[in-house]
């Protein structure tokens, strides 16, 4: 969603999901990004938590990110269709110290692609976060695997992150926002071209007699 305020200045409001299995560090990632804070102990998210991050992207663009931290409990998984609606992008989080959470992240990505898409039918931009890299660094072999997974599963990229040590948190977010803005611009241009084509098709033919 975008709106023009002062002449030449645009504000965007984008809904961004933060999804992944239980205890992969989703809430810690959000709190580090939004408040630059880290807590060793956090309450388990029930349902969904909301946070807002305002970014002055450049001299004429402001971005408001509405971050939706989605819980993993089975009893709320059925609500994901409601939670996912209207999303512009997503962080899909796994824990590098727990290999099973990568499978969980891929399940989340599949569910995301099934339940929400852009107006042109393409998947929304999603970044894979290999979180808790302060505990275990991603080796070259694992990095190659993650690169392959991103290409096969439609992620726009991946980052090893640490909310605790503030590693790549802002960088990953900037990467996602950049792609959301690019995607938004592409959609606007596609709609404008479609409107032009419709006008040309419906324009009455002139004929001399």
Written account of the structure:
The protein is α/β, with parallel strands linked by helices. The protein is 40% helix and 25% strand. Strands 1, 2, 3, 4, 5, 6 and 7 form a seven-stranded mixed β-sheet that branches. It is globular.
Summarize the structure.
With 209 residues, the protein is α/β, with parallel strands linked by helices. It contains six helices and seven strands.
Largest sheet entry: 7 strands, mixed
Strand % is 15-25%
Helix/strand order? EEHEEHHEHEHEH
Oligomeric state of this protein: single chain
- Gyration radius, to the nearest Å? 20 Å
Average residue pLDDT: 88
The number of helices is 6
Low-confidence stretches at least 5 residues in length (pLDDT < 50)?
none
Large-scale geometry: globular
Instruction: Count all strands and give the number.
Output: 7
Q: Which class of secondary structure composition applies to the elements?
A: alpha/beta
Give the helix level as a range of percent: 25-40%
Terminal CA distance: 49 Å
